[in-house]
Every structure is written in C-alpha cells, then in structure tokens.
Amino acid sequence: MPVPFESLLPFAIIAGMYVVTATGLSVTRYYSNDKKPTRHGLDTWEKQMMERDRRLTGSLRGQSDSPIASAAFATNSIWYLEKQRNH
Amino acid sequence: MSANKQATFTHTKFVDPTPLPESVPKVDELGVTSAPLKSASFFIGQYCKEYNDDFMLCKSENNDPKHCLTEGRKVTRCAINLITKLRENCGKEFEAHWQCLEKNNQELSACRTPERTFNTCVFDKLGLEKKIPGTPEGSEQIHNKKNPVY
Asked: What are the residue ranges spanned by the domains of chain A?
C-alpha cells in the first residue's frame, strides 16, 4: 500500500518553517542594507571604509561619487576614548 | 568604591567639532565613498603617483600627523582633480562600474564587463591604463584575461 499523504504532513510543516524563517531573514537583511545584497567577509579595512561612508552619507551602505565632501565631514569622526568592551 | 568609578555605559560617541587652526591652509576633503573609490583606485594610483609617493615617504620618516600636512593636501587635491575629470569624461561608465561593485560585495572579479567599458573609456579620453604591479612577466593582466578561471 502506498505511503499516505498524512504521514508526510509533518515534514512539510517543518520544511515550511525553514522556508518562512529563511525568507524573513533574507528580506530583513536586504532592507537593512539599503536594498542591496549583504556585504560579507569584512575585514578591518572594509569596516573602516564603511564607517567613512557612514560619515559621508549617513548610512553604512550609502554611496556617493561627489568629489568634494560636505563641510561636516572634516570634523565628524568619532574619538574612541575608552577601550571598547562588551560589558 | 563604585561611587568613584566612572559610568562605563556611554551611549553617545564623542565627536569633536572644533575645526583645524587658521594657520593650516584649507583644503576640501574627498567626498567619494568606498565603491567609486575602489573603482577609480588604479587610475588614482597612476595619475597621482608622485604626490602619493611623496606622502608615503614623508610618513615613513615621521608618523606624526603634523609632519606631512603639505604632502597630504597635495594628495587630496590630486584625487579630487582626477575624480572630477572621470565624472566629466566617463561619467556613465564610472557609475555603472561602481553600482555593479556595490551589488557584488565590492569584488572586482564580479564586475569585469562594466570594468572593460570603463577602462577603454578612460584610456581613450584620459590616457590612463589600469596595470596591476605584481603580475608576472609574460602573463596577461588578470582583468584582461578572457577566461581567468580555465
């Protein structure tokens, strides 16, 4: 006798849960990155460049190709006075 | 004891808005963000080679920021100059290349097609050619290879 479809329902439910969470995570990352794919494999250089982009445009993924920066850029760098700790 | 300790949970970052002293000549900062800068990097390296080398040599003498302000200003001005020229002459190809880089984790190997059109435009209009310094003699530049993988 062939396999009844009711016995495969739990697998379908569990697979559906994976689909929902993966889609939710992917959509969240897409929209939090200014509708661009997430950046991965970031080393210190890339993180520093992204911080510079944030100082220039306001967002970590914002890009601009104007040759001259706004006047605020000259003095809006963050001074890390204390060693960064995770409590 | 705990009354003498400073609060360690600071929420605001410290930013110092005082500008440079008047004795330092004013120069505009480069406003190009990371993706267009990466796209134009080899051309900046070729166009501004003397100023960049001067700055690096000056820094290697003495790492104090005050020591190399003049050379630093020249580097900034040269880069601003080149970016302006790139935008005037090859604006569309430049934009296409760095938008492609932004979508691909800023990996140059993922964006060879827009890079080819951009490089030919820059070579025609400005005479700058992208050359990677470490390539072995005899083998083609990696961005020009038709089949880089096989």
From this structure: 1-32, 41-79
Task: Work out whether the CA dihedral B55, B56, B61, B63 comes out positive or negative.
Answer: positive
Cβ contact B15–A77 (<8 Å): yes
Nearest chain A CA: its distance from B10 CA (Å) = 10
Report H helices in chain B: 34-39, 41-47, 49-61, 69-103, 112-126
pLDDT digits (tens, 9 = 90+) for B45-87: 999 999 999 999 999 999 999 999 999 999 999 999 999 999 9
Q: Is the pTM of this model over 0.80?
A: yes
Which range, of A10-14, A83-87, B34-38, B133-137, averages the lowest pLDDT? A83-87
State ipTM: 0.86
Min Cα–Cα distance to chain A from B81, Å = 8
Contacts of B34 (CB under 8 A, 6+ apart): A46, A49, A50, A52, A53, A63, B106
Q: Are B82 and B90 in contact (CB under 8 A)?
A: no
